Amino acid sequence: MTINTNNVATNTPTTPVTAAAPTALSNGMTQSDFLKLLTAQLQAQDPTNPVDNSQFVSQMAQFSQLSATQDLLSSVNSLGSTVGGALQTSQTVGASSMLNHEVLVPSTSVSYLGTPATGAVNVASAGNVTVTIADATGKVVRTLNLGNQDSGLSQFSWDGNDDSGNPLAQGVYSMAATSGTGAAGTGAALDTYVAGKVTAVGYGGSTVGTYLQVAGVGGVALSQVAQIL
């Protein structure tokens, strides 16, 4: 059989195939798009020098494997979202058991409401611990020397009086704690906590997660609770 080579040029529309590929790829090529591209390539191939069919079969197999992997990843992500939502709901419901309980949460201030206020200091290493309480102007009104404390949470109670034993006005006071052998306020700074009653439990989204509404403090992430009293 004699092949009419005059028809080769008209049977080789390379431009449409080349022009279509970038658009498909830029929009995210699907398996259907890939099959259309393969069909266009078959139609556009030079009949005197056809492309090896095994190459097309290999490409189809690779693309099918990629598509299956993507589907699997999508299913895993969907499952993770479902499980994560269930766990979050379970955590929030579980946290409701803390309602009306006292908890220790991080704070650099303490609210005095006419009754002794309870707090704690996170002692990094054993040593003499001092807690200072200051008013709104920054003036230290009370210094509590807790003495030598072992590492861990060391609780303290403030009766609302100043260093002279005079009762102070109700309100919010700042507090700080140090550890060392020097004068009060000159040692290593320590983290302070305050005790408050849990009045509500809620969910603040994926960033905050489950949170507790603590009297005298406000909203506190569940993960920040140091101790349940």
Q: How would you portray this structure in words?
A:
With 229 residues, this protein is an alpha+beta fold. 32% of the residues lie in helices and 34% in strands. Strands 1, 2, 3, 4, 5, 6, 7, 8, 9, 10 and 11 form an 11-stranded antiparallel β-sheet that branches. It has helices at residues 14-26, 31-44, 53-95, 205-208, and strands spanning 102-106, 109-112, 117-123, 127-134, 140-149, 152-158, 171-179, 188-203, 210-214, 218-221, 227-228. The longest helix is centred in the N-terminal third of the chain and has 43 residues, at 53-95. The chain contains 4 helices and 11 strands. It folds into 2 domains: 5-46 and 53-94, no CATH class; 99-228, Immunoglobulin-like.
CATH class of the largest domain: Mainly Beta
Radius of gyration: 35 Å
Structural class: alpha+beta
Distance between the termini: 96 Å
Strand content: 25-35%
Low-confidence stretches: 1-26
Number of strands: 11
CATH architecture descriptor name of the largest domain: Sandwich
Q: What composes the largest sheet? A: 11 strands, antiparallel
Annotated CATH topology of the largest domain: Immunoglobulin-like
What is the string of helix and strand elements? Answer: HHHEEEEEEEEHEEE
How much is the average pLDDT?
A: 78
How many structural domains can be distinguished in the coordinates? Answer: 2
Number of helices: 4
Shape: rod-shaped
Estimate percent helicity: 25-40%
